[in-house]
Amino acid sequence: MTNRFDPAASDSRWQERWDAADSFRADSASPKPKSYVLEMFPYPSGRIHMGHVRNYTMGDVLARYRRMQGFEVLHPMGWDAFGMPAENAAMEKKVHPGDWTRQNIATMRAQLKRLGFALDWSRELATCEPDYYGHEQALFLDLFEAGLVYRKESEVNWDPVDMTVLANEQVIDGRGWRSGALVERRKLSQWFLKITDFAEELLDGLKTLDDWPDKVRLMQENWIGKSRGLQFRFKRAEGGGEIEVFTTRPDTIFGASFVAISPGHPIAEALGAERADVAEFIARCRQGGTTAAEIETAEKLGFDTGLEVVHPLDPEWRLPVWIANFVLMDYGTGALFGVPAHDGRDFEFATKYGLPIRRVVAPSVGEANAAVTEAEIGAGVAVNSRFLDGLATPEATAEIIRRAEADGWGEGKTQYRLRDWGVSRQRYWGAPIPIIHCEGCGAVPVPREQLPVVLPEDVSFDVPGNPLDRHDAWRQVPCPQCSGSALRETDTLDTFVDSSWYFIRFASQPSDKPFDRAEAEAWLPVGQYIGGVEHAILHLLYARFWTRALERIGRLGMAEPFKGLFTQGMVTHETYRAGDGSWLSPGEVRRDGDDWIHIESGQPVTTGRVEKMSKSKKNVVDPDAIIDRYGADAVRWFMLSDSPPERDLEWSIGGIEGAARFVQRVWRLAASVDSGGSGSDAAIERKLHKSIAALGEAIEALQFNKAVATIYELVNAIEKAKPSATRDEAIRTLVKLVSPMAPHLAEEAWAMMGGKGLLVDAEWPSHDPALLIDDEVTVAVQVNGKLRETLTVPRGSPRDELERQALAAEKVARLIGDASPRKLIVVPDRLVNIVL
Ligand code: ANZ
Ligand code: ZN
User: Fold this and answer.
1) Phi and psi based region of residue 383 (left: phi greater than 0; alpha: psi -120 to 50; beta: remaining)
2) Where would a tag sit more exposed on the chain, N or C end, judged by fewer CB atoms within 10 A?
3) Is 331 in the pocket of ligand 1 (CB under 6 A)?
4) Is the pLDDT score of 252 beyond 50?
5) DSSP string covering 765-801, please?
6) How many other CB atoms sit within 10 Å of the CB of residue 296?
7) Mean per-residue pLDDT, 732-758
8) Atom 7 in ligand 1: which residue has the minimum CA distance?
9) Does residue 467 carry a pLDDT above 70?
């Protein structure tokens, strides 16, 4: 029984023991210092994948380590359970989104439990349950009352065949993903959160996040996109009216060759109402998706309105007004002046429509007349710009802003790329927005006592569109204000809202309110947050915003929700293809010498690139099958070992088998304890203390591969050592040290060695700093102050011993010859200087 560790028997035994002892329940009232370790909660897509395993193992090591260090640890798990895949499944498989989601949660929860994560399951939550989203609705109303929520017309992707709104990710190459129809942009009244009110704060706050990766901070900074510029007005040449524009390059004002307005600009719309050709053009612009990227890359389309404006610095200078598809309505003023020589989009536009291209910036004054062959977007000096000529870009910019302000035709302005957050989704499987629309009273909040607004269960997905729109029994309600007949809002909240505050609800979950402030503040901010870099922008920005919004309305006393952030790399795997190009899964192929063979057909297989595990490439490895074969600890160990955690980890059979063998090596050491050794072993003792120190440092820094390497080294050293009491003690400590990574093995070994209680409750070993210091020192030997030799001697060697060795050293003896030293200076452990 003791010669092999048997995960099949052990894993579940210890999981049950931890459960029974409530080992991982986080006590908010505990007097211990608190530590909140959180991994980004999963979307319940069906099954756990290796990426989850890697992510959660990292968090688990940290959580278990902190717990052993004496912290009260909060390490929760839940489900980001609303979202489109559930509706797609409903349409394709005729299952209710709720059934599909809850089934997936059950499967994935069971899978996670098999990995033995130290999670407080008592705090598990699923965002699709009314006891979560009801509180979210209350928070939404809090923000609504604080003026941080508003409604406005905004464009959505409209599928004209399926007659439904599409999410951006459902628009593929400008077409609806199911119908294949060309997508149109349509205006709908939608709900927005005022994240732009926090743009400066969110930007500033980034500076305080020292424990975040620089790249994530930079991505957020770019997303917020602060730019300084000039907002000013062009007078209409026809008399009456102005067109206001925003520019970040006022210095290029003498290079303007046209003014462009968005198809949604009021002037464009007014023209469209009068003229069929304008209306037709605007309609053409509306084709294609609503993403900024799509608008950016779409072919530039323009329409010359025939209107003109006057240049603000030259009353004689007229500029044509065009309607252009690349001008966004919700940025700046929805209008710009085009400078083809110095802006890529303007260059493309001017080239296509034969508009002038005039250089007004050059590397030097001497190059004022160099030809412009492509847009030169960088800074330089102003040329062909009248009174600006010769000024460097920043000075020219400042000068124009100064004049505009002095003469009253414009103002310097800070602009952010960040837009308000549109949270309306025309979907069923989301949190209903708690608003009732009444013809007389307008948009009325659902009274608090009527929350949660629960999603109706009896819906069908036979017809495209949002089933809530067709559900009259649910929709038709009396107006809370006038009691007249009114209709519920049928839009649901963006699922990013759900994930913007779940970490607060984990910390505190009373039933009568979203969270208790004091309890939440006892845990927050999250000490260490771990997740994929794909969430570097939106999720983290929205969660930061939500936290600040709660702070502003006096609900929570902190500005930033996540103190430390770590983004882990992906799990990758080789890909395989059959002769006909179809993908093959790892289970369908086998190795044959240096080649791979398709097991079923015996045909050769081409191996492809190592890529992120994905269903479409069939290069996934199912965690369950691997746990069945090797046990939880081997999987955990492998997830931590081969690569730095921020980098990709390539899955390999060799890797998992190596991990499984290592688990057995530790087991054999544990089994060898008390096999008769007595006496001490100073070398092993030092190795142990160095390992404890190095391991702690590695885990604190989340360098799990280094942590693993430290343990490997320690195991190697112990294996080589002769039996001794020190060795036995080192093995007992080793078992504690591996426990955050391989907790089942560690418990089993601990029990076998006669350890008391559960190992999870043991204290983390401490190291003796004195033992970190090497016992040998290098002593310099100088002759007349010049280094001639070095000695390696035991630390603390006596003076006369140092003198003797120094004088006996070959080089030194040769130098001294027959002379007798006048003086010998000895600095113990460091230096012997012989003065001749
Ligand atoms: C003149 C100009 C000259 C510009 C030049 C750029 C280069 P960022 O930096 O991202 O804030 N712009 C203004 N409003 C716009 C809108 N609604 N849709 C699309 N583009 C718009 O972008 C600011 C620049 O984007 C502005 O500066 C304006 O073009 C354009 F050599 O004005 B610029
Ligand atoms: Zn009413």
Assistant:
1) beta
2) N
3) yes
4) yes
5) P---GGGGS-SEEEEEEEETTEEEEEEEEETT--HHH
6) 11
7) 97
8) 343
9) yes
Q: Which amino acid is at 588?
A: E
* Proximal ligand: closest to the CA of 487: 2
Residues in the chain: 836
Mean pLDDT of all residues in 467-471: 96
The response to whether residue 223 sits with its C-beta less than 6 Å from ligand 1 reads no
**Tokens linked to 583:** 């993908």
CA of 494 to the centre of ligand 1 (A): 29
- Cβ atoms within 10 Å of 703's Cβ, excluding its own: 17
For 556-572, the three-class secondary structure string (H helix, E strand, C coil) is: CCCCCCEEEEEEECCEE
* Dihedral over alpha carbons 733, 735, 740, 746 (to 10 degrees): -150
Which atom of ligand 1 is the closest one to the Cα of 341? 31
* Ligand 1 touching residue 343 (CB < 6 A): yes
pTM: 0.86
Which tens digits make up the pLDDT trace of 128-150?
999 999 999 999 999 999 999 99
Nearest-ligand number for the alpha carbon of 247: 1
- Residue closest by Cα to atom 31 of ligand 1: 342
pLDDT over threshold 90, residue 795: no
Ligand 1 within 6 A of CB of 336: yes
Across 477-489, b (16+ Cβ under 10 Å) vs e yields bebeeeeeebbbb
Residue 66 has pLDDT above 80, yes or no: yes
Ligand 1: atom nearest CA of 338 is: 1
Distance 437 CA to ligand 2 centre (A): 8
State the distance from the centre of ligand 1 to the C-alpha of 248, rounded, in angstroms. 6
Residue 641 has pLDDT above 50, yes or no: yes
pLDDT for the residue 1? 47
Q: Is the bond into 464 cis (omega within 30 degrees of 0)?
A: no
332 lines ligand 1 (CB under 6 A): yes
Does the Cβ of 246 fall within 6 Å of ligand 1?
A: yes
Query: Residue 318 forms beta bridges with which residues?
Result: 310
**How many secondary structure helices (H) and strands (E) does the chain include?**
27, 37
Binding site membership of 227 for ligand 1 (Cβ less than 6 Å): yes
Least confident segment among 70-84, 581-595, 711-725:
581-595
Rg of the Cα atoms in the chain: 35
CA distance 513 to 497: 17
Query: For a pocket test of ligand 1, which of 244, 331, 376 has the largest count of ligand atoms closer than 8 A to its C-beta?
Result: 331
Nearest Cα to Cα of residue 588 among 616, 610, 611, 620? 620
Interval 361-411: pLDDT, tens: 999 999 999 999 999 999 999 999 999 999 999 999 999 999 999 999 999
